[in-house]
Amino acid sequence: MAEETRIILDEMAKIKAQITDIQCTLENETNRNIQLIAEGHLDLHRNLDEALKVESEKEMLLIRVNRLENDLRRIKERIENIA
Question: Alpha helices of the chain — where are they, by DSSP H?
């Protein structure tokens, strides 16, 4: 019986070492890699927000230019009618 107990304890020690190794891998590699990926996604999200902001500003400027061109056309027509 003592031999069986020693074998079981040896196996448990091996399993405990494997579990510790897995925990270290999770803490030191996997969790850090997930954090790096998440930070990268946050940067992408910020970049997308900035790009959308620029695109929105561009659209607003195009609208303003269109209105100004139309106003200028009207002014030119009035000047031509007066002259």
Answer: 2-25, 31-82
Q: Which residue has the tokens 């607003």?
A: 60
Sign of CA dihedral 29, 31, 34, 36: negative
On whether the pTM is more than 0.85, the answer is: no
How far apart (Å, rounded) are the C-alpha atoms in residues 20 and 24? 6
Find where tokens 């954090």 sit. Answer: 35
pLDDT digits (tens, 9 = 90+) for 21-66: 999 888 888 888 888 888 888 888 888 888 888 888 999 999 999 9
Please give the distance of CA 64 from its chain centroid, rounded to a whole number.
32
